[in-house]
Amino acid sequence: MVYSSWIMKLQSFTLILSSFVIIAQSDVPRPRGVSLSKASLYSPTKDFTCFDGTVKIPFSYVNDDYCDCFDGSDEPGTSACLNGFFHCTNAGYMSQNIPSSRVNDGVCDCCDGTDEYAEPGACSNTCEELGKEARAEAQRLAELHKAGSQLKVDLIEKGNQKRSEMAEQLSQLEKDKAEAEKIKAEKEALKNELEAKENEALKVYREADEQERQKKAEQERVEVMKESSEYFDRYDSDSDGMLTVDEIKVVNAFDKNKDGEVDEDEVQYFFGENESVDKDIFVATTWPLLKPLLMMEQGMFKPGQDEDDADHESDAEDLTREDGEDLGTDDENLDLDLPEATNDQELAQEPTRMYDDDTQKLVDEATEARRQLTDAERTVREIESNIRSIKENLEKDYGLHQEFATLDGQCFEYDDKEYVYRLCMFQKVTQKSKNGGGEVGLGNWGEWAGDDNKYSVMKYINGVGCWNGPNRMTTVNVHCGLETKLLSVTEPYRCEYKIDLSTPAACDESNSGQHDSHDEL
Ligand code: MAN
Known about the structure:
By secondary structure, the chain is α+β, with helices and mostly antiparallel strands. The strands form four sheets. It has an eight-stranded mixed sheet. Helix content is about 45%, strand content about 15%. The chain binds alpha-D-mannopyranose.
């Protein structure tokens, strides 16, 4: 009994010893895997409360290789919890939190080797060495930022100058616009005045034209009447003033599909439901259908010559559709659309109107006023377009001190094995194959998108669509460098490009060159 109680005490002492390790590098005692900042949460004289507050356990359960807390906070020094974290102090380099599942997994994760304590000596401590390298790199970066910042001063100065020039240009353009609009209004007023005079003078000519047109129409009507009436008389073989189905059946002209006989469909086409037609109906409805056929027969008719004929064609089409069969071959059907060539020729042949001298003078003056107004309108549009583009540039974010402003529009190229890439700052990114073909757009200027420092990442979006995929886009990582140039271009995912760009504009003298987490260097 005495013996077993002694054993129990020893076991419990061993447990406490394994869960509570004095971290050699610091004076604050804390369980294995716990950072200095969290040491106070693990007090050996109190029960331990899981970080998420859900469970309270005796302190002896901490690091007992059994996962009690849902958040894994009771096992920072063992791999018992899948979601816990092991803190390596890494004195001489930077401290690190690794997933506690990596504790004693045979792989040295921490440079001080503390994650592999089950096999002492398995990991050598490389923190000093790493720290030395990191300090040298930090020093190099600090010097680069310092030298780059000198160059940046110049970029800032030029950037501010560029912006104030743009602002001046804008105010000048606003003045130019007001002036141009005034001129435009004057030209418009002049044009209206001269056009009113021109209209007045042309009235006489228009009226004469109208009379001429009416006269011509009347003549044509009389001619049609005469001609159709003659044909009616010719077909009305018994001269009784009525044209009957029997009378037209013997007339070749009504044989629309030229099959040697006038069949029922053809009779219906010309006569509709009528058994016979008198002269008036013949002139008004039968003749317009018959005339094109007669003209074709006589070689006078080119399909599409007469606008009225278009109606006949639709009649013919209706007939075909209703009957469900074609009356003739394709060639025999009438194509009455007006061919464009004929139209153009007719227009070209139209003689230029001759006016008397006074009228011609007014027409010329009005024409000149119209031309001047068009010019004035163009000038206003051009000024407006310049204003828009300057405003767009003034609205662009060129960095905290305008350090990126002078780079706008500057283009930089990068050659890889297959392509030449070209970045035109704040404009677009393109790719050109060395095997020929045109430029492919990899994105147009979108926005700054860095996380900690907004001005460390540029996004160019909405490039040319990727085959079976999204539009191409490019991310530009902006680094401090003494020269503005492209360091590398890659395509980590299909149609998503990554450019590394160096420029003095991204240098920052206050940057020590150290990474944020190098807190224990
Ligand atoms: C071209 C290039 C490539 C891209 C493919 C996608 O070949 O733009 O960069 O990956 O198209 O089809």
